[in-house]
Write a structure and sequence with these properties.
The chain has 270 residues and is of the alpha/beta class. It has helices spanning 16-24, 67-79, 93-103, 117-123, 129-136, 151-161, 174-184, 196-204, 208-214, 218-235, 239-258; strands at 4-10, 28-32, 39-45, 48-55, 83-89, 110-115, 126-127, 140-142, 259-260. 46% of the residues lie in helices and 17% in strands. Helix 3 (93-103) crosses helix 11, helix 5 (129-136) runs antiparallel to helix 11 (239-258) and helix 7 crosses helix 8 (196-204). The structure holds guanosine-5'-diphosphate (GDP), magnesium ion (MG) and potassium ion (K).
Length: 270
């Protein structure tokens, strides 16, 4: 089997370090990400030394607002790991799925690890993984990094999908999707490292760092600005606001359908 790289991505406190330690055992290499003091951890999967595991900083989003987010997105689009394990705190599914909608756009196969299942099971809540897979079009594996369950199945799922060609999901409404398609046609540069959909959405959000990264020239920037002006007139909001709302809508629709016996949040005295 040829060597491949799995990147671990997830919100802070989703159990990334616990999972990373479990997968790599004592074979870990700790350094810094280039140019910044954010810690970079890598290791080999202890049951198969051909599998390289990279632990990304904990993040809520792939926006340019924190160093951790920039480090993570630069790594994912520039170094192209073979698979992303997106680890989620299954007791906080709705919040954790927001990042998932972004990771799914990168053109890299994603396997979802629903972590903390030991806690979910105690509440009597049920998460319908098959339905979740249907909504997200990617493999979902229930795990507990603490109790060490589901781990072999998680890595097997990664091996299965690592060479898949990913067709990113269209999660926004038709009129937004139309703009994303138009932006793809501004320049071949939008297809930067096979992350075309993710880059196009970032351009719709007018993300300066990405505009610079892919090197749009003045005439391409003019075309982009023309589209963005039209967009803001049509939606009466900027691209970033509309995209953020779109992600929340998609996620809240999904969680309505996949969680049974959901805790209300209000305790009753029965
Ligand atoms: P990170 O911030 O994503 O690296 O998360 P950590 O690995 O540091 O985990 C955060 C907390 O959740 C720690 O107290 C862990 O012991 C705990 N934790 C991690 N995975 C699980 C799990 O599957 N079940 C339970 N009950 N706790 C977990
Ligand atoms: Mg950690
Ligand atoms: K990529």
């Amino acid at each position: 089997m040829s060597k491949f790289t799995i990147a671990l991505a997830g919100n802070p406190n989703s159990g990334k370090t616990t999972l990373f330690n479990l997968l790599t055992g004592s074979e870990q290499y700790v350094g810094n990400w280039p140019g910044v003091t954010v810690e970079r951890k890598e290791g080999l999967y202890k049951k198969d030394k051909e599998i390289n595991i990279v632990d990304l900083p904990g993040i809520y989003s792939l926006s340019p607002y924190t160093l951790e987010e920039v480090v993570s997105r630069d790594y994912l689009i520039d170094e192209n790991p073979d698979v992303i394990i997106n680890i989620l705190d299954a007791t906080n599914l709705e919040r954790n799925l927001y990042l998932t909608t972004q990771l799914m756009e990168l053109g890299i196969p994603v396997v979802i690890a629903l972590n903390m299942m030991d806690l979910v099971d105690k509440t009597g809540e049920k998460i319908l993984t098959n339905e979740l897979e249907d909504h997200l079009k990617c493999k979902v594996v229930k795990i507990s990094a603490l109790k060490k369950t589901g781990i072999d199945e998680l890595i097997e799922a990664c091996e299965k999908v690592k060479d898949d060609k990913v067709e990113p999901l269209k999660i926004f409404n038709e009129s937004i999707e139309k703009y994303i398609e138009d932006i793809k046609n501004i320049s071949t540069k939008v297809d930067y490292h096979n992350s075309i959909r993710w880059i196009a959405v970032k351009l719709l959000e007018n993300d300066e760092k990405i505009i610079e990264k892919i090197g749009l020239d003045d005439s391409e920037k003019n075309k982009l600005n023309g589209l963005l002006n039209k967009f803001e007139d049509e939606f009466d909001d900027d691209g970033e606001g509309v995209i953020t709302d779109g992600r929340y809508n998609f996620v809240s629709n999904i969680t309505k359908h996949i969680i049974k016996n959901k805790r209300s949040g209000l305790s009753t005295s029965d």
